[in-house]
Specification:
The chain contains 8 helices and no strands. It is mainly α. The longest helix has 23 residues.
């Protein structure tokens, strides 16, 4: 298994070198290796209502244009995550708060066959996404990277270009805002659990 990881890293490094030399096939291969990862990240960062295909295209265009800046100090995926987070941040900054179209949520698969539980799950997801929509983009991204992606404050800082204390402050601000929204809407303390740094 260790040998396979080394081979994959070597292959990826070779692809990156070929991309920097203008090899479009190599970039296509990098795209295919990481498109599902970028899609998953974007769903978590901007939600299902965003134009995900357009954002994926933007991420990979920016990655292609900026690839010469990739120094290899971190994994390519970490660097690509940063490009993805920056793209999500730019998108969220341009958006005006809108009423959520819950029809999109009905497309999400459920593993529970009970119709009542499906409705409950969809309502809970809709509410959670509405709460996330109420956060400022920098707070939302930091919160999602910590709570959903389970990244450390240091990893988040590397992705969003902020110090660890700044990332921690953004997450605390997001948690406080979410607690306020939940308390207002539900009349109880919180659905957001404190996470250790």
């Amino acid at each position: 298994m260790h040998l396979r990881v080394v081979d994959e890293q070597h292959d990826e490094k070779a692809l990156i070198e070929r991309c920097c030399q203008g090899d479009r096939r190599a970039f296509d291969e990098l795209y295919l290796l990481h498109v599902d990862f970028v899609h998953k990240c974007l769903v978590g960062l901007v939600g299902l209502r965003a134009p995900l295909d357009d954002l994926i295209q933007t991420v990979f265009l920016e990655a292609f244009r900026s690839l010469h800046h990739f120094k290899g100090d971190s994994a390519y995926r970490t660097w690509l995550y940063r490009v993805t987070a920056n793209t999500a941040f730019q998108y969220l900054r341009k958006q005006k708060p809108e009423k959520r179209d819950d029809d999109a949520l009905l497309l999400l698969p459920s593993t529970d066959p009970s119709p009542e539980q499906k409705v409950d799950e969809q309502e809970a997801l809709s509410t959670a996404l509405e709460y996330l929509d109420a956060l400022k983009p920098k707070h939302r991204i930091a919160f999602v990277l910590r709570v959903v992606e389970d990244l450390s404050l240091k990893e988040i800082g590397a992705i969003v270009g902020a110090t660890v204390p700044t990332v921690g402050a953004r997450i605390r601000t997001a948690e406080k805002r979410l607690r306020t929204l939940v308390a207002r809407d539900r009349g109880h303390d919180s659905i957001v659990e404190r996470r250790p740094s």
